[in-house]
């Protein structure tokens, strides 16, 4: 295992059910004036965690008097919140920084920073290779951003702060400017699974869970702000474990029973940690917990799953799926798949295709294997040629398209419960999601945003549904 950072930071305060969520950093920097008269623009790549992190950055910087702006042209501070899970992330960062060259010529006050997973992964290499970058921070130093930026505006040299707070407890409240109807709530961070293809354990550090009481309090506050639906977020949410010994099923149950939240979703769960207790809680609280599960399988071949270090076989995965389907009969499933993992033969790949057909996922997210720094699989010898990866990816999508359209057609004529999220002035229609996580579009008055309404599906497309509102 390669540890990518130096010194660890600690936080010795301990939570009790009455302690507020501790974010001393907010108090320390909220009075600073570094942002006065300066606009900030954050360019976001990657997963929902990064989207949430960008919101956190905007909120923290607003407290330091920066003004969020909608384009890089209006900004005196540009942050690239990067992702390194696939492809050429470092390249992407350099090319984006390059596009800001002209802006720097016009505005010498402009500062450019790189954060997120590429920041944690590359650290000072970024400034060495691209001197236009003024500062680099990591996934664990977001809360230090006002301090880092204050240093950048005060000094000439670049500032790098990418240390992981490996031993610090995970105390964060959701910082979001406009939470809307549906919002994300972090419950775990980091990952200790070390799948051999994945960079995340190196870019997000060790796995940690937020205290149970903190999550509940956070959700209560979001409800006060008008939130109706939350999606619990983590790289591996179902290995959640609070200091008081609550597991993920307990957390879901607690949120369903102890708060007035209308809907609960979560992502991403790991098959090896998906137990019957979780299935039972989902079944018992279906009035609140949505019946949609994203359960990444990655491959349908037990041999490949073993070399991926996923911790389950094809048979064990399929057994879990069977159990889920028997306990939650109306469950809707989606998955992630990697094709062309080192050593994947045609037979291994065909096993993946068959698994996708057998499980009948409504949605798949499939990717060509991409070697990542620090990971074991990047050093495996039997890498699959790019042309083979491309062909397999196309074949997998073609096989899935055949079933996904049929699955979508089944919704025609059904009445779904849709939580209305937004109204488009341009198209004059409403959009929301059903409990099955289907995007549904229909006509209706604007003031229905935030309500859960009945919609009869009139037309199904592979990824969206069109319907008619049924007033009750
Ligand atoms: N924690 C989640 C996955 C997070 S990364 C889980 O374990 O399921 C999101 C997805 O990106 C993964 O599920 C995987 O399908 C894909 N992915 C991760 N590393 C990859 C790599 N090196 N090449 C291609 N796809 C990758
Ligand atoms: Fe990556 Fe595996 Fe952790 Fe998911 S469980 S984030 S794929 S190491
Ligand atoms: Fe990307 Fe980091 Fe998320 S690598 S997918 S932004 S955890």
Q: Strand order of the main beta sheet, please? A: 2-1-3-4-5-6
Largest sheet: 6 strands, parallel
Strand runs, count: 19
Class from secondary-structure proportions: alpha/beta
Number of domains: 4
What is the highest CATH level, the class of the largest domain? Alpha Beta
CATH architectural type of the largest domain: 3-Layer(aba) Sandwich
Proportion of residues in β-strands: 15-25%
- What is the first-to-last residue Cα distance? 58 Å
Globally, the shape reads: globular
CATH topology assignment of the largest domain: Rossmann fold
- Give the cofactors and ligands: S-adenosyl-L-homocysteine, iron/sulfur cluster, FE3-S4 cluster
| Count of helix runs | 15
Whole-number mean pLDDT: 91
**CATH superfamily membership of the largest domain, which one?**
Response regulator
Low-confidence stretches: 1-31
Q: What gyration radius follows from the Cα positions, in whole Å?
A: 23 Å
- Helix percentage: 25-40%
How would you describe this protein?
The chain has 472 residues and is of the alpha/beta class. The chain has 4 domains: 23-161, Response regulator (Rossmann fold); 173-290, Transcription Regulator spoIIAA (2-Layer Sandwich), CATH 3.30.750; 303-409, Transcription Regulator spoIIAA (2-Layer Sandwich), CATH 3.30.750.200; 415-470, Beta Barrel (OB fold (Dihydrolipoamide Acetyltransferase, E2P)). It is 33% helix and 21% strand. The chain has helices at residues 24-29, 48-63, 89-99, 101-106, 116-122, 125-129, 145-154, 200-203, 212-224, 248-258, 276-284, 302-308, 314-327, 346-359, 386-409; strands spanning 39-44, 67-68, 77-82, 111-115, 135-137, 159-161, 182-186, 188-189, 208-209, 229-233, 263-267, 292-294, 332-339, 363-368, 415-424, 429-434, 439-443, 452-460, 464-470. The strands form 5 sheets. It has a 6-stranded parallel sheet, sandwiched between helices. The protein has a 5-stranded mixed β-barrel with strand order 15-16-17-19-18. Strands 7-10-11 form a 3-stranded parallel sheet, sandwiched between helices. Strand 1, helix 2 (48-63) and strand 2 form a beta-alpha-beta unit. Helix 10 packs parallel to helix 11 (276-284) and helix 14 packs parallel to helix 15 (386-409). The N and C termini lie far apart (58 Å). It binds S-adenosyl-L-homocysteine, iron/sulfur cluster and FE3-S4 cluster. FE3-S4 cluster is lined by residues 46-47, 49-50, 83-85, 116-117, 199-200, 203-204.
């Amino acid at each position: 295992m390669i540890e990518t950072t130096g010194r660890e930071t600690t936080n010795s305060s301990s939570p009790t059910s009455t302690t507020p969520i501790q974010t001393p950093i907010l108090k320390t920097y909220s009075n600073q004036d570094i942002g006065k008269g300066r606009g900030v623009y954050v360019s976001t790549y990657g997963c929902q965690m990064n989207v949430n992190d960008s919101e956190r950055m905007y909120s923290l910087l607003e407290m330091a008097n920066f003004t969020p702006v909608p384009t890089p042209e209006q900004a005196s501070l540009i942050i690239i919140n990067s992702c390194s899970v696939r492809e050429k992330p470092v390249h992407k960062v350099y090319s984006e920084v390059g596009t800001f060259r002209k802006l720097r010529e016009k505005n010498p006050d402009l500062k450019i920073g790189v954060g997120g997973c590429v920041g944690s992964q590359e650290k000072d290499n970024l400034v060495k290779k691209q001197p236009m970058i003024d500062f680099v921070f990591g996934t664990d130093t977001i809360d230090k951003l006002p301090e880092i930026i204050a240093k950048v505006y005060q000094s000439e040299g670049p500032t790098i702060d990418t240390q992981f707070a490996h031993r610090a407890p995970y105390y964060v409240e959701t910082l979001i400017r406009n939470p809307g109807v549906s919002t994300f709530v972090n419950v775990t961070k980091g990952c200790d699974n070390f799948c051999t293809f994945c960079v995340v354990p190196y870019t997000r550090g060790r796995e940690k869970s937020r205290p149970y009481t903190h999550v509940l309090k956070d959700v209560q506050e979001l409800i006060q702000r008008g939130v109706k639906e939350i999606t619990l977020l983590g790289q591996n949410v179902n290995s959640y474990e609070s200091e008081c010994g609550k597991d993920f099923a307990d957390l879901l149950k607690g949120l369903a029973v102890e708060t007035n939240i209308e809907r609960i979703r979560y992502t991403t769960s790991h098959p090896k940690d998906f137990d019957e207790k979780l299935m039972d809680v989902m079944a018992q609280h279906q009035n609140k917990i949505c019946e949609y599960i994203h359960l990444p399988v990655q491959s349908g071949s037990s041999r490949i799953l073993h070399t991926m270090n996923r911790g389950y076989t094809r048979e064990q995965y399929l057994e879990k799926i069977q159990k889920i389907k028997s306990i939650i009969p109306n469950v809707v499933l989606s998955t992630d798949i990697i094709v062309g993992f080192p050593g994947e033969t045609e037979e291994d790949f065909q096993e993946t295709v068959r698994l996708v057909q057998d499980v009948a996922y409504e949605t798949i997210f499939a990717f060509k294997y991409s070697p990542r720094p620090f990971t074991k699989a990047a050093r495996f010898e039997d890498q699959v040629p790019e042309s083979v990866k491309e062909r397999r990816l196309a074949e997998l999508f073609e096989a899935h398209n055949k079933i996904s359209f049929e699955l979508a057609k089944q919704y025609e004529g059904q009445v779904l419960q849709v939580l209305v999220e937004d109204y488009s002035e341009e198209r004059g229609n409403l959009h929301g999601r059903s409990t099955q996580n289907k995007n549904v579009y229909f006509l209706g008055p604007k003031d229905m945003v935030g309500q859960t309404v009945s919609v009869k599906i009139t037309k199904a497309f592979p990824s969206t549904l069109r319907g008619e509102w049924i007033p009750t």
